[in-house]
Amino acid sequence: MSVLSRNQMAWRAAQDLPDGGVVNLGLGMPVLVSNYMPADRDIFLQSENGILGVGPEAEDGYEDRNLVDAGSRRITLRAGASIVDSASSFAMIRGGHIDVTILGAFEVAVNGDLANWDSRVPDKGPLVGGAMDLAAGAKSTWTLMQYNTRDGAPRLRHACSLPLTAPGCVKRVYTDIAVVEVRVGGFVATEIIPTISAEDLRARTGAPIAIAGDCRPLVAPMIEG
Amino acid sequence: MSVLSRNQMAWRAAQDLPDGGVVNLGLGMPVLVSNYMPADRDIFLQSENGILGVGPEAEDGYEDRNLVDAGSRRITLRAGASIVDSASSFAMIRGGHIDVTILGAFEVAVNGDLANWDSRVPDKGPLVGGAMDLAAGAKSTWTLMQYNTRDGAPRLRHACSLPLTAPGCVKRVYTDIAVVEVRVGGFVATEIIPTISAEDLRARTGAPIAIAGDCRPLVAPMIEG
Amino acid sequence: MAIDKRVQSAADGIGPVKDGAVVMVSGFGGAGFANILQDTLLEIGPRDITLVANSATHPFSHTHKLVEAGLVAKVIVTAARGRGSDLSPFELLWRDGKIELECVPQGSFSERIRAGGAGIPAFFTPAGYGTDLCAGKEVREFNGRPHVLETAITGDLALIRGDCGDRYGNVSFRFTQMNFGHAMATACAHTVVEVREALDEAMPQEEVQLPGVYVNSVVAVGGEP
Amino acid sequence: MAIDKRVQSAADGIGPVKDGAVVMVSGFGGAGFANILQDTLLEIGPRDITLVANSATHPFSHTHKLVEAGLVAKVIVTAARGRGSDLSPFELLWRDGKIELECVPQGSFSERIRAGGAGIPAFFTPAGYGTDLCAGKEVREFNGRPHVLETAITGDLALIRGDCGDRYGNVSFRFTQMNFGHAMATACAHTVVEVREALDEAMPQEEVQLPGVYVNSVVAVGGEP
């Protein structure tokens, strides 16, 4: 088995979402998680522009430009959904009412520091959006990202080199080759794809990483696309 | 003409309310002001439990126990009314969106200090309600009260003897014998009932009081009750 | 599992309550008192609770039953004065030093509770500055005006009265029934709402006034609208 | 005089705007952009304005026209990055030091605006602590966790998009159209709302999402729902 595709990574993260929970999915890859929610769990997706209960994307011809999520996707509402204004939505986020937020990430440090908002592209303006509030406010912050950069550099590091989103917030990291928990003692791999050895994983990590005693193979079903 | 009755005092205060304004009336005598709103002015009454646009009291048989004002009166709504929760209502008050609040008062000091919430009755518990927020938040705070206590002591004083509601907030005082403005230099009577001399007024005041150059007679129509 | 927050009884909704719990109870002026839940709390009988409610003495709220039964160690309120000159159950205990009182200006009361639910540990407000109720609180000037620092209030249990509720915990209120209900629900670890009617279908989003994320249990208790 | 806040044109609603004004513009992700009002502001042409909007670069918002025309001295935003690698009008000016940028986490952004309208000059939040965006801000621990002090944002003019509006200035929003509209309306000295439809009758109280007290002018501009 090869590394996980983006959709497989999203599938994997979805499997850990708590039944009955409230979940906020960040822009980019995390939004894909919504496509793989376990059928036996009833989960409310929150979107920081004010939606509690985001449903599937609207079908062609049924879009409403005033019904969008934080990623500007034209979406629908699920049963039981409600809508509030932005200040109330972030009161919900900051107040600890979101069980899990899954965010994209550039880097995660061994102490849980997250860098996901500013990759320092020259002259491009900043875009922070709700990332800092989500990372600081959610009960659990998970990240979904490639294990390494395109250049092969580690994203799991001693310390973030890019500007922080929030200190010490990341609890778990889902990647294309491993699932990693950020514990008090540091990174602990709890799942690794079968084609990668522990040694390979260590070589691709920028800080010490332990292998959990009960570490399992990271596997995902075949998903198109 | 004798001293003004409670209803006449309420009538007099009502004549100064700004057209198109938002007004909060305190418990007790101030609520009577709502009975005398000038017919040519369109005024929204706010009630701190969350109503913008309080209408008349509900008629017998049409009361709804979930439609009450801050004085627990079962009321109706006027056209254009809306209802918010308590936190939003006080955001409205504290944020300076109330043009005038008319409050009852025990004492007003020459610098505008207001004491209206704690008369120090032995063993009785305190009741502050929204008075401090209204006094601090409204654009103008007026008081409606008898000029003197039942014992004849002055309510307009050098300094309040009772616990403060808010410092320096009172702009104008409507009473049974005079209308008094609280200006930077101190109390200035702008209207006095015809049967009281300036000297009498000074004798009944606990601090220096000037008589406005354009001081007029305080008169009110006959009102039953 | 499909979310269904509707429960058969108030006791099922409240569950166990530990001694020393901080309990918030909604209601203002006869609107929105969670009296059936308060009666149930009386039966559960936790000791040394802190009661957060607008009034410790309102005759229409069963708060006074909890006080009279000796369950309450402390109240945080805006009103604690019984009607008339006789002493209410609260005032008797308070006079004898058997119950602690924190009296808070109503706007600071509702904003402190909102802050508790919104992840804001403290904020500055002009209300209460210079008064006995804010003696000893930190003061800072903004825009040339002194403000006091007020801290958030959070709780273990919120008891709220609403009009309708659905399986997702969404709640609507009738007129001024909302008052403190929204803020309290956000500020407590466990929130139970007694509603006139539990709905079989999800509430339309535009009717939701308290999103289900803030509600743990909904119990239908009937009653007039 | 009977209140009627409906006006014939956006220019009538906005009136004169002084150079250096702080202008807030609602909208998020294509929902609720006050574009007709922004076009009118462009014609009015005040110089050196500070623009408070979620994004300085959203292609669907006419904010970029104001920036491109050189009217904007400073932006307070959560996003200032144009799509793709080319530089947006904002980024070009920013690179050349011709426009000032304050980038704010979105939850702090909306809460600072709410605070501005609610008479709260400053509050503590955990969001942004330890990040570049909050460098130099006052830090204080609450419950063992560091928080930063954020200050209120107020404005001279708010440009809001709503769905329906009535003569009293009451406004309803469609789905996520509300976003920052409510908070911005409360935080500005003068608020204009462009609505799809101006109503002849007062809006029923349960449909009001932005109470008229916060709105100075309503202008009907049509458009799809």
Commentary on this structure:
The complex is a heterotetramer, with 2 copies of chain A (about 220 residues) and 2 copies of chain C (about 220 residues). By secondary structure, chain A is an alpha/beta fold. Chain A has one domain (about 5-215): 3-Layer(aba) Sandwich (Glutaconate Coenzyme A-transferase). In chain A, about 15% of the residues lie in helices and about 30% in strands. The radius of gyration of chain A is 17 Å and the shape is globular. The two termini of chain A are about 15 Å apart. The mean pLDDT of chain A is about 95. Chain C is α/β, with parallel strands linked by helices. Among the domains of chain C are: about 20-120 and about 155-160, Glutaconate Coenzyme A-transferase, CATH 3.40.1080; about 165-185 and about 195-220, no CATH class. Chain C is about 20% helix and about 30% strand. In chain C, the strands form 2 sheets. In chain C, strands 1, 2, 3, 4, 5, 9, 10, 11 and 12 form a 9-stranded mixed beta sheet that branches. Chain C has a 3-stranded antiparallel beta sheet with strand order 6-8-7. In chain C, strand 3, helix 3 and strand 4 (about 70-75) form a beta-alpha-beta unit. In chain C, helix 5 (about 105-120) crosses helix 6 (about 180-185). Chains in contact: A-C, A-D, B-C, B-D, C-D. Chains A and D meet through helix 2 and helix 3 of A and helix 4, helix 5 and helix 6 of D.
